[in-house]
Amino acid sequence: xxxxxxxxxxxxxxxxxxxxxxxxxxxxxxxxxxxxxxxxxxxxxxxxxxxxxxxxxxxxxxxxxxxxxxxxxxxxxxxxxxxxxxxxxxxxxxxxxxxxxxxxxxxxxxxxxxxxxxxxxxxxxxxxxxxxxxxxxxxxxxxxxxxxxxxxxxxxxxxxxxxxxxxxxxxxxxxxxxxxxxxxxxxxxxxxxxxxxxxxxxxxxxxxxxxxxxxxxxxxxxxxxxxxxxxxxxxxxxxxxxxxxxxxxxxxxxxxxxxxxxxxxxxxxxxxxxxxxxxxxxxxxxxxxxxxxxxxxxxxxxxxxxxxxxx
Length: 311
Hints:
mainly alpha, elongated, 0% strand, 64% helix, 13 helices
């Protein structure tokens, strides 16, 4: 049993890392996107953010380097990532369900790092786990783990209820969305039950973590906790293979679409990317565009569109 748990855990982690890297690389290599250029942009100088200005207001701005207010970006990203600020402002009903789900996941990630830290320390120095500091760390990761699981399950149940009953949400709900929420509920519910009903320190999460780090085949656990660990491991591997990997896309959406206002300088990165796009040969079905797969974007952009579909 222990070997199977270790193999599934390491395999799930490997799939998660590789899938995330592949997605991030595919987004980074994608053609340049149509930029929104809606101000204020957080990386602008603070005195301009207040009135929605930009460095384009500067005389001869093209001779100067683009500004980069990293603190402004971090503040904006923190509010959006941690608290779902936009959802709070524009869809409060959804926020009440989505926020506990996501914030519970963040707490779980913190708990996992803390458990790994405790497991590593106990593996290197077994005597450390007998001290008061170790007891405090264990209390924190148990509280964080339990709280994170409870919040995520509560949020997932709320999202499931909303998708099944709200007429507006039904339009955008697919069988995959329902399956994803049920997967979270099943995995975290089983893990929570195994976490709460554990019989002792030799069968719990910390013992599993120590065994995972040392590949200790003597580790034993309850069937319920083992099922929870397997389901959670499979869930971790599954997430980046679906649209739930939006946490990767979000970075590119903000930095390459919403906030990108870099100048298109001669011979620069943007000019090269635009030249590549103008060489594409689109095959859109819209007849008035004339995208027959032979003309390039440059040809289409330089010609007048047809007055209507060809007869």
